[in-house]
Amino acid sequence: MPSTRRIDWIDAAKGVCILAVVLYHFNQIVFQQIDFGQTAIPALWNLLVTALKPLRMPLFFLISGFLASRSVTGRGWKEVRTSRVASLLWIYVLWVGVYWLFTESVIHPLDVEVVATGAHPETLGGMAMQLISADTGLWYLYALVLYFVTCKLLQPLKQPAILSIGLGVVLHLASSLWLPPGWWNIASLLDYFFFFALGCHLQPFLARHYVQCNIRRLLVTGALTGMALGVTWKLSAMEAPGVKLILALLMVSTTIDFFALLTERFRMVLLCDIGQRTLPIYVIHKLLIFALVMVMPETLYVEGTLGNGVLAVTPLVMTVLIGALCLLAYRALNHGPGRVLFTMPDLLRRAAYRTGLLQPSA
């Protein structure tokens, strides 16, 4: 039974992570762009979303590393080149192309202004540079490939766990100390390798010590998280070197224990189901958010208790709705020719097998 609980908290935590990503983008692209008058509710939501920043992607990458551990440490390159590298790169490149087409054919002709979409390349060279530099809204997929390959390359060396995790610390600190502020894409790649490496190489430790909730640890890390967030906010020190790393470790530990506790006591079927289908939500959700931008008002004043109540739950309701619509779109598209949107086409896969470039996964 412990293994069942472990899988449950992983899926539940992944479900929360992907919904937190949707919430972040909805808040950034839609909610914060509307003038709601004097109400403080949008500011409070922005504060909450900002407070979740040290948790959202670190936990996502830690779980990704946890799930990739066996492929890194126990399988050869031939067994993983397709599933862990080529397939993800296919989805990454394809969906960046989908977003480019949507921007070119819908956003630009309608003259819709969408914040935080990044540069829109006009040439194939520009798109290639954008793909390589991770200057896209789908950088997570690219990061997964880079992190996996890096851990795999370090595996034959002595003390690969120390090398990988140590490299992660160095890259994270380098991002804070030397990277120019506008290079968010490179910063993202540097910031989160540590958490992937941690999940990958400490998988036995995490599976052993976090298989069940430790109430004492949950209370301690929860209290430390609250105090650390308060001090960080008071001193405006979120971008100080090492601060996000410490906050993330505390928040990740607290969250894992919290979801281990929940999955021990409740059957969180819906959340676990979402956690098993994070890929379609990740690649589709921004298209739906961009569509919302095209119909949202620039100004929307709310009045009274009812209006403020509706406004207060709007980001949460929209996050769940967007996630549900993504899964419905996935169910509709993932048939016949539409399957190429979520997995490498069989024709391309077989051609790669014949040339020896790829090997069938074991």
TrEMBL record:
GO terms for cellular component: plasma membrane. GO terms for biological process: enterobacterial common antigen biosynthetic process. Its main location: membrane. InterPro entries: Acyl_transf_3_dom. The chain crosses the membrane at residues 12-31, 43-68, 89-107, 127-149, 161-180, 186-206, 218-236, 242-262, 283-302, 308-330. It is found in: Cell membrane. GO terms for molecular function: O-acetyltransferase activity. It is a multi-pass membrane protein. Keywords: Cell membrane, Membrane, Transmembrane, Transmembrane helix. Pfam families: Acyl_transf_3. Residues 7-326 form the Acyltransferase domain. Coiled coil: none annotated. Belongs to the acyltransferase 3 family. This is Putative membrane protein YcfT.
